[in-house]
Amino acid sequence: MPQELLLQVSPEIASNDMLLKDYLAKQIKVSSKDIQHISILKRSIDARQKTVKFNLKVAIYLVGESFEENKIQLPDYKNVENAQEVIVVGAGPAGLFAALQLIELGLKPIVIERGKDVRGRRRDLKAINRDHIVDEDSNYCFGEGGAGTYSDGKLYTRSKKRGDVNRILELLVAFGASPAILVDAHPHIGTNKLPQIIQDIREKIIEMGGKVLFETRLTDIIIKNNEAQGIVTKKGDTILANKIILATGHSARDIFELLDRKQIFIEAKAFALGVRAEHPQSLIDSIQYSCDYRGENLPPAPYSIVKQVGGRGMYSFCMCPGGVIAPCATSPGEVVTNGWSPSKRDQNTANSGIVIELKLEDFKPFAKFGALAGMEFQKSIEQKAWHLAGESQKVPAQRMVDFTQNKVSSNIPKTSYVPGTSSIEMGQVFPRFLTQILREGFVEFGKSMRGFLTNEAILHAPESRTSSPVRIPRDSETLEHIQIKGLYPCGEGAGYAGGIISAAIDGEKCALKIAETLK
After folding, report:
1. Quick check: 223 and 484 in contact, CB under 8 A?
2. What angle in degrees, to the nearest 10, is found between the helix axes of 500-518 and 165-174?
3. What's the CA gap between 464 and 317, in Å, rounded?
4. DSSP secondary structure letters along 413-458
């Protein structure tokens, strides 16, 4: 049996196999030659003190002890070409993992995706960045893999109670992700690696008899006697099935409008909204690691910060070390920001959403829109940003200290946001109450993280797609919509997930419930 140890070591030891082996040999009082293999079981960074340490949990195998590399395998999927069909609307994490689970359960998924596959999608992303052209069906939010493909691949989740996180991580490893995601406290794949993994998942679905239809937008749901019967697509095609998983993501406004128009019960949901702040990565490193130079043995430093300001939570969201800010509008006439990092997190800048909790009463000016009031509130800010920045995909921007002092920045340096910036006083973008909370909050952030409040930091507005502004209510036991039998609202767009892992878990849960019903 291997010996398991919990230990704290320097970054140099943690990043060098030979040094780690020598260190462990001394700890267990053997020669390093007696150690056959070391498995890292858990890894995290402790930067609370001036000297940064790595926390490791390791398993040590001595010479002569039985040891085999644990290669993660895919489940034994069976061909489902002739099995009962289930429609899955959306090829994001919720939809793709629902489809895989359906196959595992002997059901045939018909996945429809309004956008293009990952390769075709790249051309449309270039058009946004270079030509400021937004394709409503193919952009950073819509297309194969959904928003998750181009939102960094961060896999950390607090939703441990929602389901089996390790199962999702192991499936991702089986499809090509680094095994490090099974070990790291804050696992991350990287936007440059995710497209191939997503493509491999799609190919497995098709290989096992499922279908994946791109550039196929849902325009209607066929309902008879409050039971789902199938769907109609923008091309005019009808696809029949009495089980439909609706996993369209938090930005599918046309789906929310369709449900509202058909008097399918939905409700407004509070979300968070704010800006995306970009700092030099070296500055964040110096703050978090208490050093002038990070060195090669430490990864680019992240940060996480939460404050109560004016009776509301203000916090960092989707923090991207060594990353860039991306234009994430889903329709012409709006500006939206998000952030991502490549797998090496090797860019010179760090960015994070800095957002404020909204309340349902904030949407009162849009009360005439009923359940869509939050969505219209969100839309109004994105459209205002577009007008203020010159009616293009340029983004309103302001230096952080200037923002707190209500002063237009005389110049904005080039940031990682490729379409460009326009120097705007941010108070013009947001309602007065949000502007005031943001100003006070950044001052408070600066007190907690010395050096964070600086004019080297550039604010980009808005960060508005943190979660869905609508919830599609479902029964807590059956997971079916509370009104329409056979309709399974799922993932972020339905208000039941908040990231890649939780969305994937929710997709699997819906697939399991469908299988139970059919049995």
Report:
1. yes
2. 100
3. 11
4. ---S-TT-EEE--GGGTS-HHHHHHHHHHHHHHHHHSTT-S-TTSE
Nearest to 117 by CA among 251, 232, 192, 216: 216
Placement of tokens 């789902």 in the chain: 228
Beta bridge partners of 223: 228
Q: Is the pTM of this model over 0.90?
A: yes
Cis? peptide before 179, omega within 30° of 0 = no
Residues 250-278: what's their mean pLDDT?
98
Amino acid of residue 429: V
d(CA 132, CA 126): 9
Contact 385, 328 (CB under 8 A): no
Residue given tokens 């349902």 in the structure block: 360
Q: In 10 A of CB 298, how many CB atoms?
A: 20
Per-residue model confidence as pLDDT tens digits over 462-487: 999 999 999 999 999 999 999 999 99
Cα–Cα distances in Å, from 360 out to 102, 256, 366, 371, 470? 36, 17, 11, 10, 11
Instruction: For 501-515, give one letter per residue: b (16+ CB within 10 A) or e.
Output: bbbbbbbbbbbbbbb
Rounded CA Rg of the chain = 24
Alpha carbons within 13 A on the beta-carbon side of 272: 19
What confidence score (pLDDT) does residue 79 get? 98
pLDDT (0 to 100) of residue 69: 79
71: left (phi over 0), alpha (psi -120 to 50) or beta: beta
- The rounded distance, in Å, linking the Cα atoms of 352 and 284 is 11
pLDDT for 159 equals 57
Q: Cα–Cα distances in Å, from 141 out to 132, 337, 340, 399? A: 16, 11, 13, 27
290's tokens: 């208490």
Q: Which amino acid is at 188?
A: H
Question: Closest by alpha carbon to 94, among 500, 488, 514?
Answer: 500
Phi, psi at residue 229, to the nearest 5°? -120, -20
- 434: number of CA atoms within 13 Å, CB side? 25
When the pLDDT of each residue in the chain is averaged and rounded to a whole number, the result is 95
Which pLDDT score is estimated for 151? 67
Task: Tell me how far CA of residue 205 lies from CA of 65, 506, 516, in angstroms.
Answer: 40, 18, 21
Specify burial of residue 72 (Cβ count, 10 A radius: 0-12, 13-18, 19+). Answer: middle
Q: Is 205 exposed, middle or buried (0-12, 13-18, 19+ CB in 10 A)?
A: buried
